[in-house]
Amino acid sequence: MNFQTELETLIRARYPILYIISSEEMRVQNVVEEIARKRQKKAFEWSYSTGIVPVGTSIQSQKHRNAATKDPLAALDQVIEQVEPAIFIFKDFHPFLTKNNFAIVRKLKEIALHLKNSFKTIVLISPVMEIPTELEKEMTVLNYPLPSREDLSELLDKIITDVKQFKQVIIDLDDTGRERLLQAALGLTLGEAENVFAKIIVKDERLSGDDVNEVFAEKQQIIRKSGLLEYYATSEGFASVGGLTVLKEWLSKRALAFSKEARAFGLPAPKGILMLGVQGCGKSLCAKAVSTQWQLPLLRFDMGRMFGSLVGSSEENVRRAIAVAESVAPAILWVDEIDKAFAGSQGSGQTDGGTTARVFGTFLTWLSEKSAPVFVVATANDISQLPPELLRKGRLDEIFFVDLPSRDERMEVFRIHINKRGRDAARFDLAALADGSRDFSGAEIEESINSALYDAFYAQGEITTEHVLIALRETVPLARTMDEQINRLRSWAEGRARNASVARALTGDAQVRRMEL
């Protein structure tokens, strides 16, 4: 049942007060107006600036103005006095439903009882929900859905038709480009989508499937206004990630999982992954790379921002952050170091009154039940801090273990970072560098190149293989200082998580006989 059918059913069933949560006043009003016309009812609208006027009255028009009905109590009296069947739309009525407005709340309750025996309905339209306890049993709450792909497609067709009169505007949209643009626009209101399409045309005098970044910038505004999530604009792709072949292949296969063809094929939207492993081995870089590869906005979920001083505010912040992520979906939600975010959730009752446990429970429930196409990328370093509930299948699609890079992977990491700094990696002995960086993470390899650049610059020369080898010899990798923790992590991951790299046989002194003691 679509929204219009459901709303019409409730009106026909004589539900007295319908509360519609939406920021798109005009879209909701158009639906209500169409239902009123179909049911042969009059339609009126009320706002604090106009009072009660017939639906569609121009803001400049003074013909139907009734200044007295600007007062909410007078407006509600007008509802009672109306004899003919009618629908009354009240816009932004929520400030009058707070505890201090007991007179209006009481009046509305009395009217609700009156409306059940009439052919009149009150429809409240507001972007937020404010329902006093006295009216909970009299109101029915509806969420107006954001525009569907079909709605956005109609809007795009209308805009293309409108700009055909301008010969200098180039419309370069094949089926693939159109799909990419509509995919990026999902999660925007019609007004926001119309604005961003117009902005692209005015700015570039063209419209193509390559303009998805402009659409993401519009979504960035929504995220910035929430104050709870961070929008990450990244240009890092899988080409910037050395190794991790299995993980990159798994993600590449799901690149089109949010497309129209995938839905027609019966594919469910992927839920997410957990990457755990050694620090500095590319887990966060992978989160950024998948955003570029899939051409979806990347949102960072910072648990530190969620916790508030007031009782219940932390849980509410998590729900709001999730709602914002779903409102701009399809998107990628990056939860960095989730082990630290939810550390101590099991003993939360003794430390913080159970706040962490409740926040964690809210997040877990959403992971299991979410239907919006939000792909979660969670990273962790310490598995001992991970609550077991998080690892259950169904909440995330897969758990990947990211180990220290192998020799071939270290060569690839050196090649990437040397080329990134404007040097030709072919001029370096990558095999010698890989041999000299055993047990180094990707971050430590990058830092060795930075250190070698400083040395070469100080010596007023060009960086060479020897500069990098000296920097490697001067560095003690984290894997040696944290050998016990990393071995414990590897033991835990074996059989419980997929290796993000191609499985490799142990060589040399790394061969260890396994014994049970």
Task: Please provide a brief summary of the model.
With 517 residues, this protein is an alpha/beta fold. The protein has helices at 3-12, 25-38, 72-81, 102-115, 149-163, 175-185, 190-204, 212-226, 245-253, 260-265, 283-294, 313-327, 338-341, 348-351, 355-369, 407-420, 430-435, 442-458, 465-473, 478-481, 483-493, and strands at residues 17-21, 42-47, 51-54, 86-91, 120-126, 139-143, 170-172, 206-208, 229-232, 272-277, 298-301, 331-335, 374-380, 398-402, 498-499.
Explain what you see.
The protein is elongated, with a radius of gyration of 29 Å. The protein starts with a helix and ends in an 18-residue tail after the last strand. The protein has 4 domains: 3-143, 3-Layer(aba) Sandwich (Rossmann fold); 149-226; 232-402, P-loop containing nucleotide triphosphate hydrolases (Rossmann fold); 407-480, Helicase, Ruva Protein, domain 3. It has helices at 3-12, 25-38, 72-81, 102-115, 149-163, 175-185, 190-204, 212-226, 245-253, 260-265, 283-294, 313-327, 338-341, 348-351, 355-369, 407-420, 430-435, 442-458, 465-473, 478-481, 483-493; strands at residues 17-21, 42-47, 51-54, 86-91, 120-126, 139-143, 170-172, 206-208, 229-232, 272-277, 298-301, 331-335, 374-380, 398-402, 498-499. The chain is an alpha/beta fold and 517 residues long. Strands 9-11-12-13-10-14-15 form a 7-stranded mixed sheet, with helices on both faces. The protein has a 6-stranded mixed sheet with strand order 3-2-4-5-1-6, with helices on both faces. Residues 347-351 and 504-512 have low confidence and may be disordered. It contains 21 helices and 15 strands.
